[in-house]
Design goal:
Length: about 100
């Protein structure tokens, strides 16, 4: 399987669910006060987006909100996966009433 070339010292690579060598790199650039999101197809960068560091918390909030929605939507699927060991499911504790945070373990 293809893997992108190395990142700067602080970052991560996420492979696209569609495959075909698609990926996204996230790299911190504190010297420029940005996080760079770059889209890759094989060894070719097809686009970049520079997110100001002060906007990162807003992006995290959007991702967390989507994760919470997905957690509630797919809880039944999780229950069927963990039906033999219910204790594992309880480690994935969704938000309590009035609490907008997601707790994982």
């Amino acid at each position: 399987m293809w893997r992108p070339s190395p990142l700067p010292s602080s970052g991560e690579v996420f492979l696209d669910a569609r495959g075909d060598g698609r990926g996204m790199r996230v790299s911190w650039h504190p010297e420029a006060d940005v996080v760079v999101l770059s889209l890759w197809r094989g060894r070719t960068c097809s686009g970049t987006f520079r997110l100001r560091i002060d906007e990162v918390p807003q992006l995290i909030d959007v991702l967390r909100g989507g994760l919470q929605t997905s957690y509630h939507r797919y809880r039944g699927l999780l229950e069927s996966v963990f039906d033999e060991d219910a204790d594992d499911l309880h480690e994935l504790d969704g938000p309590a009433a009035g609490d907008d945070t997601l707790r994982l373990a």
